[in-house]
């Protein structure tokens, strides 16, 4: 390995990484930053398998890789610290052994850091199974976010960032060692926050993909364990101690309230009441002790009303009433759906609706009093809590629904331009409400000013109420397909069989034949059968696209004679069955205001085709008659009959 300074040192602790190591190395090999400008320092934590040998093989094929091996320490802290001591880079980037960097991550982050003289660059992250991961933190590029007052500039507080090595060296900033240390990254970032002068957010270039792996260390953090509460105590203690001083008061409050809200008070969520009695008692007592020790009443002012209710009951020792509140005032998620999708020139216009309703149909219990919307809770709560906590009028009027698009390939989410409108209805004093919205998806600019990569994107909805966010892939939206042509191919939006709404570039997921409907007109010219279809834009120049078509050319009458019992059984189910189906090349042709599917076949008999599987309410199996003059739905007694 060549010696001398480099721009970035990537430090990777390993311990039995399995196949995830291949993914990580492939992402490093794909970096756009020249290899001579960066290095990788692998530090294996005494893996008992062949990890070290795999690392040596990786090193032998790459001049910028260094490998160290240590006795097992039990946690990533010591390997990271050793890697930091060995690093030669101007900046250090920490990775977990089964994650990946996006291809332009190191180049873009380093240049962003140099342009802003950054001590830390917090680059845009994605998480495998969380389409809304840290979206609000990555709304825009910013060279300096250290004075933000809405959230701490190092959130999310994992170490998947770019750190100036000189900062770490000058202040001896290292990960806390000593075996298993829950939330070791928070301890590290608290020290960084104490000394950093410039913290930057890079949102426009995807930086890090955090793979959620079953059985990872963080998946073993459970509230039912006293260990969880021990380390939460230590985390908040570090926040209050290491960020002491008036100049750090805002950062200290932001990080402390974040722990208060997301860990301590969120323990009293919908899962609290179903726990066994001993667990509920332990959690209440641990939370009560930590609240009294670390969280002043002024922290309650930064909570929404539901959490402030929980905080007040916890402070006053009302354990049983707090348990009842998790049932009477549950967290009910907001869920968005698409009600319409239409292309307006080069942009996609989406109509949305969002309801706050759980899987059982339960909604928030709300009533109207003196023109205000208030929580409808039993008298016991009014006797125990401050009166202002029941009025949620302003919260509901500030609720929003937004739309984003998430790449199926990279898992990166970009947010679209969205607007919301509140609708309320009062019946016998009870209030019901929902939001409608509009969103504009512009494939040419929605990746923060750049085009969306061609491929498949899933539409997701972000519902926000009183600071509580539910961000999910939209399900159960059954909309007619909407298709447009662009200079590079075709873009379609449609509902998948699982209810998700897909934005599909160039038939990556679904051929156009599944998104269009036959008009009923068919013609045969030699061996080419042409089936006229609707659902495609037919204005402009002639266009032609390769596609595929599912057909069954086996004689229907012959099949009926050969397997009459099976046929009769399927007649009852109106199921044409799997026999004889195959996928063949076809093409979509648009000319003279008419769109057609053209397929070359040798048969002159009637045959079956699958067309329009993604069109809601449409019978996708069609029969093309022997005369090749019409196409009609197939099913019931039509089976086995040649026209």
Automatic annotation (TrEMBL):
Residues 9-136 form the Glycosyltransferase 2-like domain. Residues 229-325 form the TarS/TarP linker domain. Keywords: Transferase. One of its GO terms (molecular function) is hexosyltransferase activity. The keyword Transferase applies. This is Glycosyltransferase involved in cell wall biosynthesis.
């Amino acid at each position: 390995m060549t010696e001398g300074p480099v721009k970035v040192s990537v430090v990777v602790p390993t311990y039995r990484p399995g196949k995830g190591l291949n993914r990580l190395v492939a992402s490093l090999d794909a970096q756009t930053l020249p290899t001579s400008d960066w290095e990788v320092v692998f530090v294996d934590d005494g893996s008992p398998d062949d990890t070290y040998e795999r690392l040596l093989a990786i090193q032998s094929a790459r001049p910028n890789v260094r490998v160290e091996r240590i006795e097992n320490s039990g946690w990533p802290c010591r390997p990271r610290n050793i890697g930091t001591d060995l690093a030669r880079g101007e900046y250090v980037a920490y990775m977990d052994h089964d994650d990946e960097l996006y291809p332009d991550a190191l180049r873009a982050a380093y240049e962003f850091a140099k342009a802003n003289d950054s001590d830390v660059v917090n680059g845009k992250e994605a998480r495998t199974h969380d389409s809304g991961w840290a979206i609000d933190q990555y709304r825009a590029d910013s060279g300096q976010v250290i004075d933000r007052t809405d959230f701490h500039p190092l959130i999310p507080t994992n170490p998947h960032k770019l750190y100036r090595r000189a900062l770490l060296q000058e202040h001896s900033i290292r990960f806390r060692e000593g075996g298993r240390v829950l939330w070791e990254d928070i301890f590290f970032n608290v020290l960084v926050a104490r000394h950093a002068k410039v913290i930057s957010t890079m949102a426009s270039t995807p930086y890090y993909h955090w793979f959620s792996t079953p059985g990872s260390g963080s998946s073993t953090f459970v509230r039912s364990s006293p260990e969880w509460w021990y380390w939460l105590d230590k985390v908040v203690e570090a926040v209050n101690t290491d960020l002491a001083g008036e100049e750090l008061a805002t950062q200290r409050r932001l990080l402390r309230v974040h722990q208060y809200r997301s860990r301590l008070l969120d323990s009293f969520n919908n899962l609290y009441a179903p726990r066994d009695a001993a667990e509920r008692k332990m959690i209440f007592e641990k939370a009560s002790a930590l609240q009294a020790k670390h969280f002043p009443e002024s922290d309650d002012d930064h909570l929404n009303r539901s959490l402030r209710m929980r905080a007040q009951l916890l402070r006053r020792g009302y354990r049983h009433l707090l348990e009842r509140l998790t049932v009477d005032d549950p967290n009910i998620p907001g869920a968005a759906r698409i009600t319409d999708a239409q292309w307006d020139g080069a942009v996609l216009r989406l109509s949305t609706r969002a309801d706050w309703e759980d899987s059982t149909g339960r909604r928030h219990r709300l009533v109207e009093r003196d023109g205000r919307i208030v929580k409808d809770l039993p008298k016991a709560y009014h006797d125990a809590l401050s009166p202002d906590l029941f009025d949620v009028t302003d919260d509901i009027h500030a609720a929003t629904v937004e739309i984003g698009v998430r790449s199926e390939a990279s898992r990166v989410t970009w947010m679209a331009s969205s607007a919301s409108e509140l609708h309320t209805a009062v019946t016998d004093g009870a209030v019901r409400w929902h939001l409608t919205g509009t969103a504009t998806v512009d494939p040419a600019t929605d990746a923060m000013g750049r085009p969306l990569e061609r491929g498949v994107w899933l539409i997701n909805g972000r519902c926000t109420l009183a600071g509580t966010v539910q961000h999910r892939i939209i399900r159960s939206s059954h909309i007619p397909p909407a298709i447009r042509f662009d200079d590079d191919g075709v873009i379609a939006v449609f509902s998948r069989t699982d209810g998700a709404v897909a934005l599909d570039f160039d038939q990556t997921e679904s051929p156009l034949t599944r998104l269009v409907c036959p008009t009923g007109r068919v013609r045969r010219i030699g061996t080419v059968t042409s089936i006229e279809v609707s659902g495609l834009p037919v204005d402009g120049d002639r266009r032609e696209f390769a596609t595929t078509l599912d057909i069954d050319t086996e004689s229907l009458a012959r099949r009926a004679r050969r397997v009459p019992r099976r046929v009769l059984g399927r007649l009852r189910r109106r199921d044409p069955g799997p026999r004889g189906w195959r996928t063949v090349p076809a093409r979509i042709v648009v000319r003279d205001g008419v769109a057609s599917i053209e397929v070359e076949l040798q048969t002159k008999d009637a045959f079956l085709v699958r067309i329009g599987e993604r069109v809601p309410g449409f019978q996708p199996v069609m029969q093309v008659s022997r005369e090749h003059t019409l196409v009609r739905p197939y099913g019931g007694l039509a089976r086995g009959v040649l026209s």
